[in-house]
Amino acid sequence: MSRISILSACFILLAAFGANAQPGGNLPAEQVEVIKAFDAKLAESNKVDLAPSLPGVDTTARTFSYEVAPKTITVEYPPPRIRPVSYRTGEEDKGGEYKAFVKLGGGLPSAIYGEGAYNTFIKRSNKEAYALGLNLLHHSADYSSGNVENQKFGLTQASGDATYYLQNGAAVNATLGYKSNRVHYYGYSFDPFNTETNVPEDAVKQLFNTYDLAAKLFNGVKTAGDLNYMAGVKLYRHSDEFASRETGLRLDLGGTKWVAGKHSIDIGVYSDFTWYRDTQEISQTLHNFGFLPAFTYHGRIFKIKVGGKILSSNDEFELFPDAELVLNLTGNELALFAGVTGDLQKNTFRSLSDYNPYIHTRFEDMGLRNTRYLKAFVGIRGNLNVFEYTFEASLKPTNDLPLYKFRYDSDLIYDFDVVYDDVDVINLSGSLKASPIKGLDFTATISQNFYDTKFETKPWHLPSLDLNFMAQYTSPDGKLRGRGQIYMQNGVPANTSFIPGKFTTLNSLFDLSLAGEYWFAEKVGAFLELNNLLDNKRERWLYYPTYGINFLGGVTMRF
């Protein structure tokens, strides 16, 4: 029996389950005014999807830390009816004790860091309110020294967000963002066969600029028919130093109808357009369209989701299942989950350069393409009070998975071509979180991928093993916060020539980092980060090692 036939059988099996409903909760009897943008999809809130997934954005070549946010596992079951946050009539939300913060600092070698944010929520009347947010970030460093030239980076981001809640219950949101990511092709400094020195910065500089604009209309309060709705548009423009540019436009429509207070019928429709062009006037387009229906039923000891994805790209239609069964075996202590899903994941100029900023950005015939995948998964999760856990095993056959092969230009531009291959991925993953005492949290995550490539010798520059251990402590008075972290990743395979079968395995990552923050006054504090204390100079990309020990410190203020 073929793999797709097996996955289809899993889908049919999941669709056969059913059970009785459980009554939902009630709001307090007092008068309330509810104002909140929410998306009450209980199916998504109960699942921690650990992998296998296409590799996420990797920035270890140009940032100081390898921090991976801890995964919080929620297994309360049966799930309660999710409702908006409520406000007593006439009571104004203060938006928290502090609305803004500023974080300024520097470090060695030659680092500058600045971060700031402002957020507020204001009620104009009992049925009208608005929220505003602003975020700024700058981080740059220069590691150049001795025989190492142009090992430097600069990242600047700015974004604004505004939401207006109308008297008729609707809400409108708008966001605006800008990102500047400056890197350098410093790989020539680490090529043992290269003799070039004193290379000007402009000769090896790469600069990505990204502009984002988005708007969304949704229901800001519960509607009379218990129906959530959303209509949104997203627009971006992405360009680089070599005049390659890309424009993306996405339109979304969605709705959720709640039945008996907790079962949901979901409908989603989207159109996703991408246009790419480079200096040689080579243009490419990639347009995806999707229809996403699903039904989620909550029984007394189980939850079942039955849905599908009808997708279209380049005048070809694809049909994927989207089903999951969660069975609560022993209260919160043990739950079993299994499912099957699939999708078309876009590989665009923006997504590829975010993952690998050293790619060759004149794509020619190997540029924009969809990765088609089908995923079957099974696992367990639970909460034993002392710790929470999740373990998952999955099989994920993919078509056109992007890999990254090293190439060399005569002008000292050491970059990478994007190549596509059909790859079967088996993943084993898990996470543990423990809180032995108040204020102290331990988190451990592991993910192991096994790749089976069809055409290429190896899965070029894709890591297979990730290990992360982190401990965080917050003092009872909240003045002191500390973090210790160990992050490990295996060495990735890289081609060293254009001779088939010739490759090397780059060195692995073993990073130990410490960080702390102390508020010595109500609104003024200090922070310190000690990164890569083991001086590991791992090459995430061939000829692009990360820097060794580095420090970052400064002051933090809140208002």
Q: What sort of overall outline do the alpha carbons produce when their principal axes are compared?
A: globular
**Count of separate DSSP helical elements:** 3
The name of the CATH topology is Maltoporin, Chain A
What's the assembly state of these chains?
A: single chain
N- to C-terminal distance = 63 Å
Q: What is the averaged pLDDT score?
A: 84
CATH architecture: Beta Barrel
Structural class based on helices, strands and sheet pairing:
mainly beta
Gyration radius (Cα, Å) is 25 Å
Record field, number of beta strands: 28
Helix % is under 10%
Please summarize the sheet with the most strands: 22 strands, antiparallel, barrel
CATH superfamily: TonB-dependent receptor, beta-barrel domain
Strand content: over 45%
CATH class type: Mainly Beta
* pLDDT < 50 stretches: 1-96
The tally of structural domains comes to 1
Topology diagram in text:
Elements: H1 3-14, E1 32-34, H2 42-45, E2 86-88, E3 100-108, E4 111-125, E5 128-142, E6 152-165, E7 170-184, E8 205-219, E9 227-239, E10 245-259, E11 263-277, E12 283-298, E13 302-313, E14 316-328, E15 335-347, H3 349-355, E16 369-383, E17 387-408, E18 414-437, E19 440-453, E20 465-474, E21 480-489, E22 493-495, E23 503-505, E24 509-518, E25 524-531, E26 539-541, E27 544-545, E28 550-558
Antiparallel strand pairs: 1-2, 3-4, 3-28, 4-5, 5-6, 6-7, 7-8, 8-9, 9-10, 10-11, 11-12, 12-13, 13-14, 14-15, 15-16, 16-17, 17-18, 18-19, 19-20, 20-21, 21-24, 22-23, 24-25, 25-28, 26-27
